[in-house]
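pinned: reference chain
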Amino acid sequence: MIYKQLTGISNEIMLSKISYGKNSVQIDVQQLAKEEFMQSSSQSDFSFADSSLEKIDPYLPAITIFFDEVIAMQVLDRAFSHEKETVYSEWHSFRRHTGSDFLQYVLKETFVKEFMQATGETIEHYEIVTITDVISIVSSIPPVIKLIFEKQLH
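pinned: its structure tokens
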């Protein structure tokens, strides 16, 4: 699966785990149930997400995103997000930017611009918005994405 396909997911997501390597990072997230699903399902279909009122939909896959080359990374509390959340239903948890303020900051404050000119590579800013955090990653290599299904629909 490619990251662009994730940008269509509008469910809220919860951060499960961030694992760091030498120059890599793996982010595990879980999709949370939409209100319609919670109303139509029995209480036993859910598990509580870290004692919050949000509930995990066991029929939606968990998502693992692995970045093999991280140029820059920033994890902020969602309250400090750079963009306004104007319409809640149109908010997407996965975004990709080619001209964001964070990307411009990385280009200005590092030697990445010179590297890009020498190699011809391009970099992108990937943004993952969870219920509590905004994770920004700048990388020249697209991430590897895995979907993990706990339950199957019958």
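why pinned: The chain has four helices and ten strands. Residues 42-53, 84-90 have pLDDT under 50 and may be disordered.
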